[in-house]
## 1
Amino acid sequence: MAMRDITLGQYYPADSAVHRLDPRVKILLLIGLIVAIFMARNLVAFIPVVLFLILATVLSQVPVRLMIKGIKPLRFILVLTFLLNLFFLPGETPLWDVGFAVIKKEALLTAILYSFRLVLLVMGSSLLTLTTPPIVLTDGLERLLSPLKVIHFPAHEMAMMMSIALRFIPTLLEEADKIMKAQTARGADFESGNLLKRARAMVPLLVPLFVSAFRRAGDLAMAMEARCYHGGEGRTRLRVLRISDGDVAACVLMAALIFCVVACNSLHLY
Amino acid sequence: MQITLDHVTHTYQPGSPFQSTALEDVSLTIRPGEFLALIGHTGSGKSTLAQHINGLLQPTSGRVLMDGQDIHEKGFDKKVVRRSVGLVFQYPEHQLFEETVARDVAFGPRNLGLPADEIDGRVREALKKVGLTQAGIEEKSPFELSGGQMRRVAIAGVLAMRPDMLVLDEPAAGLDPQSREDMLQLIAQLHAQGATIVMISHSMDDVARFATRAVVMEHGRITMEGTPEEIFRHAERLESMGLDVPSVCRLGIQLRQMGVNCPDSVFREEQAVQALLDLWKEGKPHGHA
């Protein structure tokens, strides 16, 4: 089933240096990486970013195949971005006359730069979700956002909702798969026919799925209340997050990366 | 109609870190008219096997044959298998979706493209078969019914397609004792009317009572196969697989351990009563506890 092919948000279990990093640090590192990617103004400045990503991927033990799989859904946007930039950006040095337009050197470089940015952004975020279980990720997010509680931002509630939603995605997928099979066994056809026919074919899938989602939600609320859940106030944690030497090293590396990117930018190369 | 699984292997999510082999080199022929029980621990591959019987899952390797024809071959209409083999999933009541009972039961026949009056006839027949004969029940919402009734509606929905073979995945799970008994009687009755039954069950008592043949699965392989009598003689082997024997067999085992001459071919209640009566009439059990 197609639903199984989504890499973003699919955890790859391993025990690596990257997996062991504190989730808060990993989220901040990703933000740092995004900043570095957007700061890089020429192709040379991307070299340190690429090196950083390669290092992180090798350390994480995540197969390169999985990383590349994450880019696949983006291929149309990538091609489109590349072509639009290539044909419509202004430039001075003509490279190649293709008949209906003239490709300019500046436009080609910018097109490569933008596509590269997209690929690196997706790979960076995939690396975070591949090496961090969703529950740990929301935990880290909650802690990072908790200073905002001063202005009554519901950091705990938001994180709890996110972890519950994430927790139920595989359950609901499995449920959908099962209901789909049950209806297929009764002769339902989800694949052929025009758009309207296919939309109507979804009813026998969606109604039972909603019924079961509501039932599960009710059960979960009951189970949480039975265990005295009353929100985030005064709640202690099972996983206490601690900053380790590895986290410090990773942060230093990120600072070095941003420095390198700035340095490369100022070299005024391509 | 006869379904044959020919060296079927099934691997879930091949090539991913979550790859798992659910079936390994399984060969099995389901004979017309038999009542086949599939026994095995949770995760032994029973449900995966059941989903191969009507072509919902395609084997990673091996073939599934319907009367000698490969059902996954190009040009073979899968609707033929789906119509002939009715599959009742675990908790089938979770698949109900229509506004009324009658419309839900009609879903299968409608998908077969039958004329309206034929569909009506089949709906009435199927509801009667599962014992839902209360006046006005056809027009009720299936979500207003009790759990046991909902399950019957779901089974009626499969029966309305008039399958020759019925595959049931733990049809009695989660029912109260009375609904359980009714459900089993319903299945026995369908079998008596000529349907081939394949039933996944964890209750060895039910297997002993109804099955004409049993297949035991462990780690995706068929490890034992035979009549219930042959299977339940190997109590120790079943226990080593984390399975049970019928309570009547346990009684026999205990009696033999105490030195009572109780035959090991006893696995049904009525047989046990007869055996105990015989022993009592002899008046001289060998041992005395």
## 2
Amino acid sequence: MATSRKSTSIKIGNNRDIPKLSKALCERMLADLEKARRPMLEATKCSLDNAVYNPKVGFLTPGDKKVRSELNVSSVQKLSRAIFFLEILLRNLETGAVNNKRELYYIAKGECKHNKDLKPLDFADQSESDSVVDFITEMLECYREELNVFANDRGGQTYSKNLIVTEHMADNEKAVVDLGSLGTSPFQPKNKPQSFTLKAKKGKLDFCLVVESEGTANTLVSNGFTKRNNCILMGAQGVPSNAVRSWAKTIQDQLKIPIYFFGDLDAYTIQNIYRTLKAGSAASLIRNADFSAPEVRFLGVLPEDIKKYDLADYVVNPKDAAEFRSLKKAQDALKNDPFFKDKKNKGVTHVLNWLIKNKRRCEQQAFFMVDPKDPLMPEKIIIDKIKRGEFL
Amino acid sequence: MASKITSSSTAEYFSKNLQQVGFSSGTKAVLTTLKEAVDNSLDACEDAGILPNISIEINKIGPGTMKNMDTIQVKVIDNGPGIAPDDIIRVYGEYLASSKFGRGRCSRGQQGIGISAATTWGQLTSAKGVNVISKTLKMKKAISGTIEVDIKKNQGNFKNKETIQWDRPHGTSVEFFFDGRLQLQGEGGVLTYLKGTSLVNPHLELKYKINEDEEVFFERLSTEKIKIPEAVPPHPHTLKLGEFLAHAHLFGQSTVATFLKRGFSRISDNTIKLLEKSGMPKGIANRSLPKTSDSDLKKVYSAIQKTELLAPNTRSVLSIGEAALAKSIERLGEIDFFSVVSRKPRICDAKPVVVEVAIARFVSNKGDNDDPVTVLRFANRVPLQFDKASCAIAKAIESVNWKAYGLQQPKRSLPLGPYIIAVSVVSPFIKFKNASKETIDSSDELVEELRLTLMQAGQRLSRYIKKEQRAADLERKLQHIEQFGPILIQCLGRITSAPKARLEKANIGLTKLLGRDTDAAESKLQDAVDKHQKLQERIKIRRGAKD
């Protein structure tokens, strides 16, 4: 890393013509080398210390910090790998081939195997090639999907009796999906850019419920939640993938209905799941505008629900490495995460403080214990909470 | 009916509890016997101002009398001053007959138990006492015979006593036959003991022969005679009330003031005035000690505890010294790096202590990075080889963050790597956990002093490791330039479809650019090599100065 002559740095704008941008970047590097000047690559620093929370936009945006890599003996390996990988990705874009990161790791290994000159670049494990792909996306300020690098689909299974999704395909075809006609199958957004138009079949939808646990989401649907309520119900399946995040944003922006998040009451859920869904993540600062739904509200489980519904909760065991790490991360978040430091989110910050102080946790499934004989009790509580405005 | 109460002799007690003094297994029996004999030889030589020559022979001569045991012969011959005829029988045949008991000197032996216990073990397992030959300078002929312990009476029996011609002006030879198991390597191994002893005794000339193996000879590395500091009276803050009263009862005819001034260190006339201010009854100082009641003595004791006294004198402590350690560490094997630290004497738990540390890396095991380091522990220059985990030294090593000095270290464990960490604690009052002197009790103050010394040695080690790492890092960078530069140009050329001429020009530019880095890298590398050489030369000079 170095910070010297700005004149040689290559700035990438918001123009997303990736092949053109990449070629310009390589052209600048080559020109610098011809003049025996050190080329420098610059990328936005994607980490919490460069995250800014603007309550007006509602998601984490990048600050001014940049990561600069100047060509020298220390960085020559990193830069060679980056340009080598860029060549592979440009080839994919040209041919329309797509890959996930694991496949790219093996493609890179194959290239190194078949060309002995490239042997020094060989990758010992996937984390090495992943970091190169991430560096390229940060350098070009683009999504990895724009480089035809896709993640596996995860989460986002969506149910509704009153939602029609129209997908606009690349070949100008349209695919219209009536979620009410899918029977027991859900609609699932893909982990790649998709263009959707959403509308209610009749009137206006009342709300969208995002449930942390995929299993609980399925149970609610099986018990008739979407039949009785004019809503959309989506399973997040843990930490929301890009697909879940952009799908939630699409629902928020196009349908303009309230979105509620229902999940566990613990530090991990609030920090890693709810905050990512609502405001994006530090690792994806340059993409949060498209991958966050700032209008999402935290429906529960809330600390007061434990008392109100007499829910079973658990003591967080500080000797359990994962739970201890989670509490430690929560403490760090309160100090360093701009999302939790902003007064707009004081409700959720208060819950995080409560969790650290009381060292207790309560799972979303605890609503099933309120009346064990009534399978609809969780639904009743959720609807009741929405009606009473018991959310953050 | 109440059972009859009997009393036992000291010898009877120890003969039934030999496990308490280092004879709890066959392996320990061999090591303890050898250790006691060598300790006695070294102590005797040092007391007499003689540079020690010790010759050791250990043989497995057949099956033992007990199950899974062998009959072991251990023979130790020294050039010490020899033992006067009247004393021989007491040294080897009587418990607690010691010239060293409680005298406050840094001698290896302290209580006069060990060697008599070795005689007893031989008697119990092979029905043989210890064969002794000894000659002082004044004697024309040496005395030879076998000594056995009369367990009922705690006194020695001298059998086959005769005078013989001996080929040396003075010295002692002892030979034991007993049941044991001969372990050579590892923490409880005989070779580990012998190497350890040679490490902390650079003035020792040692020959040893084990079974049919070739004789090994350790040349004397220092001709400086060990000057054992004079004994000092105990510091009053180190005594418990009972010990204080016993000391007063045994002191004899004198006044209380004389008892305090001569019986303890750091008490003067001025201190006695301070004691009176702290609650010692006035006039008691001039009273006759035997006529002073225990309740008054308790008041004196209480006043002493309330009064601040000077810390104990540290002149009574002996150190091996950095130069001597630096020389003898090569006796352990071929090493490519070492650092030694000898701290000044400090007061720990109101007792003077010297801690010395040597760290070395073996060339032969250089790639061996997954095993814990070898730890050698010493107390008053005697290797400690058992029960490492509960020893203050091991605790101190584990408490240091070795990662900061470039070593790998699992949490709260010994660091890893082909290193040896030798730690010596010398004090006239070492507090052992047991009578067999296997582990040092870990008080907070002692552990802290050990930590500081280890950290100092670690800092020296880290300077060396960092230089090595820098050299390796620079080498790696130089390789990077050669390997990755051409790839970068080729990839850029393909993406931009640049003509060959441009690529050649870029190649020249890249060579120039990285050439600057190469020059700088080579210069840094050379700098690191030069610094390393200077360090080696300094070590050589330091060691040479002591030759």
